[in-house]
Automatic annotation (TrEMBL):
SUPFAM superfamilies in alphabetical order: NAD(P)-binding Rossmann-fold domains (SSF51735), Siroheme synthase middle domains-like (SSF75615)
Highest taxon listed in the record's lineage: Bacteria
Reactions this protein catalyses: precorrin-2 + NAD(+) = sirohydrochlorin + NADH + 2 H(+)
Protein name according to UniProt: precorrin-2 dehydrogenase
Molecular function terms, GO-annotated: precorrin-2 dehydrogenase activity
Gene that specifies this protein: sirC
Amino acid sequence: MVAYYPVMLDLNGKRCVVVGGGAVAERKVRGLLAAGANELIVVSPQATSGLEQLSAEGSILLKCREYLESDLFGAAIVFAATPIRSVNDAIATACRAAAIWVNVADLAEQGDFVTPAAVRRGELLIAITTGGASPALTARMKRELEALYGEDFAGRLALLRELRERMLAREPDEARRHAILRLAAEIVAVGNPAEVRADESIEDWIVKLGQTVDGRHT
Ligand SMILES: C[C@@]1(CC(=O)O)C2=NC(=C\c3[nH]c(c(CCC(=O)O)c3CC(=O)O)Cc3[nH]c(c(CC(=O)O)c3CCC(=O)O)/C=C3\N/C(=C\2)[C@@H](CCC(=O)O)[C@]3(C)CC(=O)O)/[C@H]1CCC(=O)O
Ligand SMILES: NC(=O)c1ccc[n+]([C@@H]2O[C@H](COP(=O)([O-])OP(=O)(O)OC[C@H]3O[C@@H](n4cnc5c(N)ncnc54)[C@H](O)[C@@H]3O)[C@@H](O)[C@H]2O)c1
């Protein structure tokens, strides 16, 4: 068992290399594109129609041939997603030697990281893993969390970001600022953000939040 450390990577301008062109490779590619990867190379003699379509659209660079070690040049992260153990092993070994982060689809423990399932709602990103114990449970929990945190959470979070930026710019009293931001998060987490701001501007809301927080202290 590995005690994984969670991080959220910014892949903008980082070269990502996926070796393999089957269903697993396509899933990794779609996850990378959802994360904004814009330098994505896929190496595989055969590719799914989905990958071919992404290549035709210019979303990925598809190299239709077998993996070569030179494919790793300049890569920040690599996914070894072929069904051939000796090929995945060679990729993992070369990445280790070059200090490149590698994911190994058929032998997770040989890689540096595993791929979590992701629920995205605007800036909210929930990543789920069972560390390889049960990918099926991971997929199921993703569906549960999608239902729990609906599409509207993107808007709720955008509202909280706007509020936070305004408060950071104008409220020097740290304790009061924190109290207001925590109260707003509580309201937005349980209520409908449209109701929160149905007939008031964010400025009116700030006044109301401030009054509630000040009332708590007196
Ligand atoms: C989360 C997700 C992300 C993604 O891939 O994008 C993901 N697997 C997903 C689905 C899924 N994968 C498999 C099934 C069939 C049911 C089952 O086997 O349980 C299902 C379920 C389904 O399809 O519904 C089969 C499977 N998976 C791995 C092996 C190889 C092995 O264990 O050795 C085999 C057996 C191959 C065989 O039997 O031949 C390995 C890995 N799969 C991982 C990630 C990593 C740890 C995940 C974790 O535990 O949290 C890890 C360790 C390595 C890695 O890939 O990083 C994605 C859901 C995304 C979503 O729903 O959005
Ligand atoms: N991590 C996961 O989520 C997960 C899930 C299921 C299976 N797996 C594992 O991943 C492997 C791949 O699964 P799949 O369903 O995508 O397989 P697949 O058979 O559909 O596709 C394999 C791909 O690898 C390519 N390939 C073969 N040799 C290559 C080489 N030398 N260089 C580059 N590409 C090469 C093929 O062209 C093909 O596109 C499975 O064998 C299994 O071990 C992992």
